[in-house]
Amino acid sequence: MAIFRPEDFGAKGDGRTYDTVPIQETIDRAHRQGGGIVVLEGGRTYLCGTIRLRSHVELHIAMGAVLLASPDLDAYLALGAVDDDTNRRTGTPVTRKPAYVFVYAMDCEHVAITGLGRIDGNGGSFVSRVDRYYVTGTFYPRPTRPFAVCSG
Fold first, then answer.
1. Alpha-carbon torsion angle 33, 58, 142, 124, nearest 10
2. Using CA of residue 24, residue 73, residue 98, residue 67, what is the dihedral sign?
């Protein structure tokens, strides 16, 4: 299986520079070429907004690599619309706001996330300390953990 590296598309993996576009371009290239493994290298932190996986692509997060979710809500795709009485279940029913996603796959097959690296949802960026005993969400819903809607 072909190996693809986001660094070949400009990813820095320094934890400060957004690597969303280079990683997505790498995934898309692997998909267009019939599939492959996109490798996030160990010892690097890839700061990203929404990443969409594609058919026949494995996202391999090597040991020591971190896929770090952006602390900026504008970096995410909002799937669905505001959940109201005309479009039930497309958003988040608790707050009736769109559902934001970090890593997702939709209408695809043979997709995997592998490796001993880490996906850091950066949840602390979406809460704040009110006092010594109480923290509260500064935005709800925050981007969700990885999910997939696939077959095969």
1. -130
2. positive
- Decide: 26 and 19 in contact? Cβ < 8 Å: no
Query: What count of other Cβ atoms lies within 10 Å of the Cβ of residue 139?
Result: 13
**AA letter at 95:** T
Q: Which residue ranges make up each domain of the chain? A: 3-151
Residue owning tokens 């400009």? 10
- Per DSSP, 72 falls in state -
Residue range 63-101, pLDDT digits in tens: 999 999 998 888 887 665 554 555 554 444 555 556 678
Q: 103 with 53: CB under 8 angstroms?
A: yes
124-147 residue pLDDT tens: 777 766 677 766 665 555 555 444
Q: Whole-prediction pTM value? A: 0.79
From the CB of residue 116, how many other CB atoms can be counted at a distance below 10 Å? 11
Which position has the token pair 């020591």? 64
CATH superfamily for domain 3-151: Single-stranded right-handed beta-helix, Pectin lyase-like (2.160.20.10)
- Rounded CA-CA distance 1/131 in Å is 52
Cβ neighbours for 86, distance < 8 A, ≥ 6 positions apart: none
